């Protein structure tokens, strides 16, 4: 079917602004992805999947300018023992990065594998993204596969002693970065991936994660505070038997953020948790779009999303649990809640269930409202000043999402940042 | 219902529920009435629209209204977003107007109506006599005579056959008649309100309805009047290849109250038939409308052959402060259901409620829910939806709760549960929640494990164990919905009371 004219024009304009890097062994995958982009067209205002988030500035040929924020503090996890892989405005920086050797993992740059004929990542690059295009189209992910300029491939074969940290620094006011990472976690292997920083003025990131039977991947991300940055990210995760995937995202400000999580539970007894806490102030739109597909028996999925919004900020949540025929004994849980600190902010949610198996338990809940007056009164009556009391209640509200992080030390880092945000507001 | 007999039902699902769903799946209204009919030519075009208008002896403005709707409709696309799948509908391969020959001369009173028509309604359990006891309803004789009176407007294919108790209602100032009559007798009211809740261009099916609606009911309750009896409309599709397009307009003026019921059935036919209705309700200050539906159109056979395609737009506009509307629906019929009775809560402190039980079996598909649009301050809405799927059926709840920036201090509570009987069916939930102010509270829950703590505590305190208590509270709700139905639907409701939502999936 031909695309509507406006969509066709926008797609062509965007594609004309990009050049495909030397593709090497990812050639077929990139060309396939480009064909998908042409066939689907880039998202437009009228698309149902973009009902609450205007994609215009994510699709425009040039990235809108975004000032670089000097936060006056190091990025999250700076004190943690980790292996850093640094990208400045989407370009790998060997000087700032650590040595990429670590026991239990092999790390290759996309650029390096592209010139090889045979590499494990070739089998994965663009594969999960392509699978993730049905039943809902994600054209910006396909665009990423086709045009990604950098990224790494991580092969996890053991249990590395420290987390791997992608550090995304933002230095140019007009940077437009497209990164694509692929991660394969082998059987019984386990890794923690951290992501920090604002990345670029406009950031399109795609991560494909394939977890083999009994494998485990923890993912914790803190998206940078630069007020004017824009980001669209996709995480495609496929889980094998008895494997585990746990992801948490903290977003503090940023004019536009769309984080998509596409999770497929393909092996029995697998566990997937995705969580997020976001605090937004002023001109801010944060969109969490999650699509979890249960294809195997006795799997568990959990979605926990909390948003604190004020001064006209908008929070969006689109979550879906799809339980396919035969995926019996599924345990699906989904909660999305917003705390609106004033009357200008809004929360828009679409918590969906689609179930084709009868012996499953899926629950979803969504609430929105102001700070609980009774709780506030309780604290005030015990002598807690108003501001401290609201801060306390706001932190308590966000805690349910932060609690999803297993590693307490890493969770503490996140809590510190949240306290920082609360302290800055007055 | 062989299909359900072979279905492996998972542990925890109440046997009584399975039996009740099976019972519902046996269609009892599949017979037809052999009666001579008069048809308009097949298809839809401006000439057909004019013909329908002419048959109803409508004034010029009405004809123009229809024609402009038709004009718009030709430029619209069929909506595709619902989770229902059916072969393309050929809108030109349908009759848009069919009436019994005997209705050519409109009967002046019920005594003149063709006995065959009266017999049809008699057989459906809706006697068109101004009698007090409803046929076949257990326990009806125990109810005081006053409470048993029900005025009925009976619509047979494209025309209203008759309306009972009109004189008695007139004494109270209540107007209850067919819409075709209202257009002639009360043009000022029709002109003032028609299309103000569901605009002509609202959606594909509503626009088609605006162009070709043939009949339906009209209700006007004057200020301060509590309607002395229940009003009801019974829709029967009888003719083959004929679409029914009815239009209902209910106006509850300041401080009035009315309870309105709607029932529908159709004979068993091999080809699918189209039904696209529009219901508009206007609720003024302090008025209250209770609208109950038992939708039992022919659902098609076990293999999905035949059945009614039910595309309905129902909307209530709570215009005045403290106005209230309550939708209760029991959806058991139709091959395809596409229906979202909605509330626009415009007046301050207005309230909207939606209670729904949708049961799908065999190859049925239902995509149903509600929209609660909060515009006024201190508005409240409550949504309780129960969906049950069996056989190869698909059941979707789709709803919108929207709190506008000005709707301060408003409340919404939504609960929707689904139950699957067997592993070949599907149950889906697609809620949209839009909150644009912070003094309102919105809660959406779809789970049976989450039961109100106070209720639970109450039961536990009285010695029930937790499981028993949960079952009681959850099932209690389902029964609540059924009990909210007026007596007239007791017969249909009786068989549904056994349904419990134990073992719900989400």
Structure characterization notes:
- Chain A is α/β, with parallel strands linked by helices and 426 residues long.
- Chain A has one domain (5-424).
- Helix content of chain A is 22%, strand content 38%.
- Chain A is built from nine helices and 20 strands.
- In chain A, the strands form two sheets. Chain A has a ten-stranded mixed β-sheet with strand order 2-1-6-8-10-12-14-16-18-20, covered by helices on one side. Chain A has a ten-stranded mixed β-sheet with strand order 3-4-5-7-9-11-13-15-17-19.
- The mean pLDDT of chain A is 94.
- Chain B has 506 residues and is of the alpha/beta class.
- Chain B has one domain.
- Helix content of chain B is 23%, strand content 32%.
- Chain B has helices spanning 2-5, 15-25, 46-55, 60-73, 115-123, 145-148, 166-171, 179-185, 187-193, 204-212, 453-461, 466-483, 490-496; strands spanning 37-39, 98-100, 150-156, 159-163, 175-178, 217-221, 230-236, 247-252, 257-265, 272-275, 278-283, 288-295, 307-318, 324-331, 336-339, 342-345, 351-360, 365-368, 371-374, 380-390, 394-403, 411-421, 426-435, 441-446.
- Chain B has a ten-stranded mixed β-sheet, covered by helices on one side. Chain B has a six-stranded parallel β-barrel with strand order 13-15-18-21-19-16. A two-stranded antiparallel ribbon of chain B has the order 1-2.
- Chain B is globular, with a radius of gyration of 22 Å.
- Chain A binds chain B through residues 48, 321, 325-326, 328, 332, 338, 340-343, 345-370, and chain B through 9-11, 81, 405, 408, 418, 420-447, 449-450, 505-506.
- Strand 20 of chain A pairs antiparallel with strand 24 (441-446) of chain B, so a sheet runs across the interface.
Layout of secondary structure:
The complex is a heterodimer of chains A (426) and B (506).
Chain A: H1 5-16, H2 27-40, H3 56-59, E1 83-88, E2 91-92, E3 101-102, E4 105-109, H4 110-114, H5 127-131, H6 139-147, E5 152-156, E6 164-169, E7 176-185, E8 190-197, E9 202-211, E10 216-223, E11 230-239, E12 244-252, E13 256-265, E14 271-281, E15 285-294, E16 300-310, E17 314-323, E18 331-340, E19 346-355, E20 361-369, H7 373-381, H8 386-402, H9 408-424
Chain B: H1 2-5, H2 15-25, E1 37-39, H3 46-55, H4 60-73, E2 98-100, H5 115-123, H6 145-148, E3 150-156, E4 159-163, H7 166-171, E5 175-178, H8 179-185, H9 187-193, H10 204-212, E6 217-221, E7 230-236, E8 247-252, E9 257-265, E10 272-275, E11 278-283, E12 288-295, E13 307-318, E14 324-331, E15 336-339, E16 342-345, E17 351-360, E18 365-368, E19 371-374, E20 380-390, E21 394-403, E22 411-421, E23 426-435, E24 441-446, H11 453-461, H12 466-483, H13 490-496
Parallel strand pairs in B: 3-7, 6-8, 7-9, 8-11, 9-12, 10-13, 11-13, 12-14, 13-15, 13-16, 14-17, 15-18, 16-19, 17-20, 18-21, 19-21, 20-22, 21-23, 22-24
Antiparallel strand pairs in B: 1-2, 3-4, 5-6
Helix pairs in contact in B: 3-4, 4-10, 8-9, 11-12
Family (chain A): Belongs to the iron-sulfur cluster assembly SufBD family.
InterPro entries (chain A): Fe-S_cluster_assembly_SufBD, SUF_FeS_clus_asmbl_SufBD_core, SUF_FeS_clus_asmbl_SufBD_sf, SufBD_N
Organism (chain A): Ruegeria profundi
């Amino acid at each position: 079917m031909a695309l509507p004219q406006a969509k066709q024009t926008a797609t062509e304009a965007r594609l004309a602004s990009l050049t495909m890097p030397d593709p090497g062994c990812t050639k077929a995958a990139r060309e396939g992805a480009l064909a998908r982009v042409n066939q689907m067209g880039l998202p437009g205002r009228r698309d149902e999947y973009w009902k609450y988030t205007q994609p215009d500035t994510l699709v425009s040929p040039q990235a809108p300018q975004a000032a670089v924020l000097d936060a006056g503090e190091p990025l999250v996890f700076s004190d943690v023992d980790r292996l850093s892989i640094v990208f400045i405005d989407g370009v790998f920086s060997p000087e700032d990065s650590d040595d990429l050797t670590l026991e239990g993992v092999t790390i290759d740059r996309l650029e390096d594998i592209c010139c090889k004929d045979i590499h494990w990542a070739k089998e994965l690059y663009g594969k999960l993204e392509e699978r993730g295009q049905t039943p809902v189209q994600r054209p910006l992910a396909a665009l990423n596969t086709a045009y990604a300029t950098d990224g790494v491939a991580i092969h996890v074969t053991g249990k590395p002693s420290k987390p791997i940290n992608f550090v995304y620094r933002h230095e140019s006011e007009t940077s437009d970065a497209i990164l694509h990472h692929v991660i394969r976690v082998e059987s019984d292997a386990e890794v923690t991936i951290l992501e920090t920083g604002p990345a670029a003025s406009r950031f399109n990131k795609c991560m494909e994660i394939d977890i083999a039977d009994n494998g485990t991947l923890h993912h914790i991300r803190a998206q940078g505070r630069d007020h004017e940055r824009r980001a669209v990210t996709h995480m495609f995760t496929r889980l094998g038997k008895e494997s585990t995937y746990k992801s948490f995202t903290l977003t503090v400000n940023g004019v536009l953020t769309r984080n998509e999580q596409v999770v497929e539970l393909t092996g029995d007894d697998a566990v997937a948790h995705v969580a997020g806490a976001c605090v937004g102030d002023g001109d801010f739109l944060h969109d969490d779009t999650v699509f979890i597909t249960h294809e195997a028996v006795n799997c568990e999925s959990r979605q926990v999303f909390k948003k604190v919004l004020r001064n006209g900020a908008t929070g969006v949540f689109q979550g879906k649990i799809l339980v396919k025929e035969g995926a019996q004994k599924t345990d699906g849980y989904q909660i999305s809640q917003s705390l609106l600190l004033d009357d200008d902010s809004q929360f828009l949610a679409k918590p969906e269930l689609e179930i084709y198996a009868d012996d499953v338990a899926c629950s979803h809940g969504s609430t929105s409202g102001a700070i609980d007056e009774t709780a506030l009164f309780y604290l005030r009556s015990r002598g807690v000043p108003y501001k401290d009391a609201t801060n306390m209640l706001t932190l308590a509200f966000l805690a349910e999402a932060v609690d999803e992080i297993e590693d307490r030390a890493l969770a503490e880092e996140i809590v510190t940042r949240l306290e920082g945000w609360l302290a800055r507001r007055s | 219902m062989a299909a359900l007999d072979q279905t492996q039902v998972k542990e925890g699902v109440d046997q009584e529920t399975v039996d009740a769903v099976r019972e519902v799946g046996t269609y009892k209204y599949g017979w037809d009435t052999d009666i001579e009919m008069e048809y308009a030519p097949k298809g839809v075009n401006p000439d057909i629209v004019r013909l329908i208008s002419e048959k109803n002896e409508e004034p010029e403005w009405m004809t123009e209204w229809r024609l402009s709707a038709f004009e718009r409709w030709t430029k619209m696309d069929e909506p595709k977003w619902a989770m229902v799948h059916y072969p393309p509908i050929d809108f030109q391969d349908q009759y848009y107007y069919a009436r019994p020959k005997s209705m050519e001369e409109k009967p002046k009173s019920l005594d003149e109506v063709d006995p065959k028509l009266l017999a049809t309604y008699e057989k459906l359990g809706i006697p068109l006599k101004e009698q007090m006891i409803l046929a076949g309803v257990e326990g009806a004789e125990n109810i005081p005579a006053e409470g048993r009176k029900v005025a009925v407007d009976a619509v047979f294919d494209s025309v209203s056959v008759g309306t009972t108790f009109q004189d008695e209602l007139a004494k109270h100032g209540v107007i209850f008649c067919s819409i075709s009559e209202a257009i002639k007798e009360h043009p000022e009211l029709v002109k003032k309100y028609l299309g103000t809740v569901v605009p002509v261009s609202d959606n594909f099916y509503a626009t088609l309805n605006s162009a070709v609606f043939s009949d339906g009911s009209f209700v006007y309750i004057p200020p301060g009047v509590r309607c002395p009896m229940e009003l009801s409309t019974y829709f029967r599709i009888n003719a083959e290849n004929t679409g029914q397009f009815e239009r209902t307009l209910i106006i509850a003026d300041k401080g009035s109250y009315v309870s309105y019921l709607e029932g529908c059935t159709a004979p068993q036919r091999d080809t699918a038939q189209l039904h696209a209705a529009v219901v508009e309700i206007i609720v003024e200050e302090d008025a209250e409308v209770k609208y109950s539906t038992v939708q039992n159109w022919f659902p098609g056979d076990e293999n999905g052959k035949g059945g009614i395609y039910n595309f309905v737009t129902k909307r209530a506009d709570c215009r005045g402060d403290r106005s209230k509307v309550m939708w209760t629906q029991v959806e058991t019929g139709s091959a395809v259901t596409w229906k979202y009775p909605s509330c626009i809560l415009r007046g301050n402190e207005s309230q909207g409620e939606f209670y729904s039980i949708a049961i799908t079996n065999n190859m049925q598909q239902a995509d149903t829910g509600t929209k609660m649009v909060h515009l006024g301050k201190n508005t409240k809405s409550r949504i309780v939806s129960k969906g049950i799927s069996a056989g190869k059926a698909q059941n979707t709840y789709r709803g919108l709760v929207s709190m506008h920036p000005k709707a301060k201090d408003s409340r919404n509570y939504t609960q929707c549960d689904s139950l699957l009987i067997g592993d070949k069916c599907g149950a889906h939930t697609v809620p949209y929640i839009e909150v644009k102010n912070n003094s309102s509270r919105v809660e959406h829950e779809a789970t049976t494990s989450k039961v109100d703590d106070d209720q639970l505590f109450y039961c536990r305190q009285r010695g029930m164990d937790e499981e028993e208590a949960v079952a009681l509270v959850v099932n209690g709700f389902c029964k609540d919905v059924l009990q909210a139905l007026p007596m007239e639907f007791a017969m249909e409701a009786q068989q549904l009371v056994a349904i419990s939502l134990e073992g719900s999936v989400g």
